[in-house]
Amino acid sequence: MGATSKIKLNKRLDLGRLPAHIAIIMDGNGRWATKRGLPRNMGHKAGCENLKKIVEFIYELGIKYATFFTFSTENWKRPQEEIDGIFNVVRDYLDEDGDEFVEKGAKIVVSGDYTKLPQDLVDAINRIIEKTKNCDKFVLNLAINYGGRDEILMGVNKAIQAGKELQNQQDFAKLLYNSDIPDPDFVIRTSGEMRVSNFMLWQMAYSEFYFTKVYWPSFTEKDLQKALIDYQQRKRRFGAV
Ligand code: FPP
Predict the structure, then answer these.
(1) Cα 178 from Cα 191, distance rounded (Å)
(2) Model confidence pLDDT, tens digit, residues 102-117
(3) Which member of 27, 50, 141, 145 is catalytic?
(4) Domain for residue 195, yes or no?
(5) Hey, which of 24, 31, 55, 72 would you mutate to test ligand 1's pocket, going by the most ligand atoms within 8 Å of its Cβ?
(6) Edge-first strand listing for the sheet containing 138-146
(7) Of the four, 14, 100, 164, 238, which is 20 to 30 A from 119 by CA?
(8) With a threshold of 0.85, does the pTM exceed it?
């Protein structure tokens, strides 16, 4: 988390009606780079810089929970060089910003089986989780080696192992990653793709969605405010009238 930004707030944004949990599918890093004649990994580097910037802004707005889709269980199909590039920028972010997370009261958690990642990244994740475990002002959830279907399967297996019939949906939700985080109120996907791509399938049952054509490295605080203003126009009914 960098220095406090001096972002001009849009007057139409109602700071009293922000989502408690915002989840972002950071798509379009590779295309952002290709468009500029750069290797795809430069896009992930720029994407990670943008992640830092947007995390900072979400924190400043006072939104308590943020989840970022950083690497999916399907992303292993990408070229090894690109996979390594993504892991390296995430590891550096966690290593470099550790003290600042603590200063700001930001707790870092991970959704996904991160034990399958390269050891240096596993170590960095374990260090940051341990270092920030008592922080309670803000929660940054990184979905890494995460897939919604895998997560549901994990929950089912845990239930079978416990050998006890689940009574309700809450009982099942408790078996999923970071179940103390409320379901995302608002999900944003950048880069123009309009699909869920196996992200938080259980938790998104009643989320509001926002899609923008902007590639992730170009997605600014201004774009986020525009998205949030859109969110604030929505009527959430949760099945009621
Ligand atoms: C889902 O699309 C999108 C993601 C898992 C996020 C993609 C972003 C990255 C891999 C890089 C983010 C990293 C940093 C450091 C900012 P998908 O490609 O898994 O699925 P699709 O094939 O349906 O589009």
Answers:
(1) 27
(2) 999 999 999 999 999 9
(3) 27
(4) yes
(5) 72
(6) 106-111, 138-146, 65-72, 21-25, 186-189, 208-211
(7) 100
(8) yes
